[in-house]
Fold this protein.
Amino acid sequence: MSVAVGFVMIPARAEPLAGAPVATSASELPTAFDALPGRWVRPDGGYVIAIRSVDAGGKLDANYANPNPLPFYAAMATEEGGKLKLFFELRAGGYNGSTYTLNYDAAGGRLTGTYHQAVARQTFDVVFVRK
């Protein structure tokens, strides 16, 4: 006589901690980039950067207005040493490679940095505030 004995192990399902955010996919997890979407205005001239969204890799869905909308040739955010850095390049409308290099100031709720006007070959300190 022979007897076969078998069993199946079913792993326990981990439950989230009480009060912890629950995400259904990696794209729904909060990131530092979540602070960036919105309408940012330069008080010294009314220039606007409108950031609609940021993907997980830092690519910005954004446009510029002065006062008419212009597309960015490049729009990117990076996180370096816990700080958010943004880079925008304009090639449309006579901007010919002009760039914004900005840092997100979480405490001040603003973007600060420089604007390089490629045609005039001049660089200016700039500030954008959330509108």
In short: The first strand starts at residue 38 and ends at 41. DSSP finds no helices and nine strands in the chain. The two ends are 82 Å apart (CA to CA). Strands lie at 38-41, 48-54, 60-65, 69-71, 74-80, 83-90, 98-105, 110-117, 122-130.
